[in-house]
Design goal:
304 residues; alpha/beta; Arc Repressor Mutant, subunit A; D-Maltodextrin-Binding Protein, domain 2; five-stranded mixed beta sheet; three-stranded antiparallel beta sheet; 9 helices; 14 strands; 25% strand
Length: 304
């Protein structure tokens, strides 16, 4: 049997906790995935996965094998990169995840240059405002504009996101213009539920750091939803400066709380914590580092 291929299938089944999900990911059938795991079990003479009608769980032997199998595949990729392919361009599939709006504005438009630079590379781009479980969903790399709280993930800063408070002229006319962050306590705010602390807005200014608790009648987990709501006059919002097209310059939105801004948010390349990073994934990270450094809206070049 192809032991390396069997290891790859076993690892993905263990991570995704599903034969069907791995079958869809690999473009094959659930019985084919199940047979490959069964063949590995027969080869090793041990039950690796305990199956029930609704779930599956690794046996003690399965948990032991998982760590060994990952190290084996890491070593294989390291050897391929060091021997025989040292001068070859990175190739293969990289599954890349990012948020909907940032993906539309800053990731998807750069794909032609990335693929032109690496003719042997393929990209599967997944865009969603819901944080993706990188391990369970088989994601190689995510570009995130949020603080990474999962200690099992590696995060490399590749850019910086500045945010400002904005409102429509109609909203300001109806509710008044806030002069201090504390004024937002009694004003309608648009809450982005995808943030780590959706009801708390932190600002920094001449007086230092101020945290305010905000409320509003409209909440959403989508950045585009926040944009449309603030344009419609539903309240005050915090939006990244890279989010705007002509909304501010043509007067549809106006910055408020001049002199007060939230701390910048790091834009990070996030990937599962493993000893060796595949050359194709490293190439994509380095590409975004170079690209974002040259973009003044999101560059972190020169930051500490």
């Amino acid at each position: 049997m192809d032991l390396l291929a069997a290891f790859r299938v076993f690892i993905r089944v263990a991570e995704a906790q599903s034969f069907s999900a791995v079958a869809r990911e690999m473009g094959t059938t659930q019985p084919a995935v199940s047979r490959q795991v069964a063949a590995l079990e027969e080869h090793l003479g041990a039950r690796l996965i305990q199956r029930t009608t609704r779930s599956l769980a690794l046996t003690e032997d399965g948990r032991d094998l998982l760590g060994h199998a990952r190290r084996v595949l890491d070593s294989v990729e390291e050897a391929e990169a060091a021997v025989g392919r040292r001068h070859a361009l990175p190739g293969g599939l990289v599954r890349l995840a990012t948020s909907s709006t940032f993906g539309r504005l800053y990731v998807a438009p750069r794909m032609p240059r990335l693929l032109e630079r690496y003719p042997e590379l393929s990209i599967e781009l997944r865009m969603s405002d819901t944080l993706t479980d990188l391990v369970a969903d088989g994601i190689d790399l995510a570009v995130r504009v949020t603080q990474v709280q999962d200690s099992s993930l590696v995060a490399r800063k590749i850019g910086s996101s500045r945010r400002i408070a904005v409102a429509s002229e109609a909203c300001i006319a109806a509710y008044g213009e806030p002069r201090h962050p504390s004024d937002l306590d009694h004003l309608p705010c648009i809450i982005f539920t995808g943030s780590n602390t959706p009801g708390e807005w932190q600002f920094e200014g001449a007086e230092g750091s101020v945290t305010v608790h905000v409320t509003g009648r409209f909440r959403t987990d989508n950045g585009e939803g926040v944009r449309e709501a603030v344009l419609a006059g539903l309240g005050y919002a915090l939006l990244p400066t890279w989010f705007f097209g002509t909304e501010v310059s043509d007067g549809r939105l106006r910055p408020v709380l001049t002199g007060w801004e939230p701390p910048p948010t790091a834009i990070t390349a996030v990937y599962p914590s493993r000893r060796n990073l595949a050359p194709r994934t490293r190439a994509v990270i380095d590409f975004f580092v170079d690209e974002f450094r040259l973009d003044p809206m999101i560059s972190a070049y020169g930051e500490a």
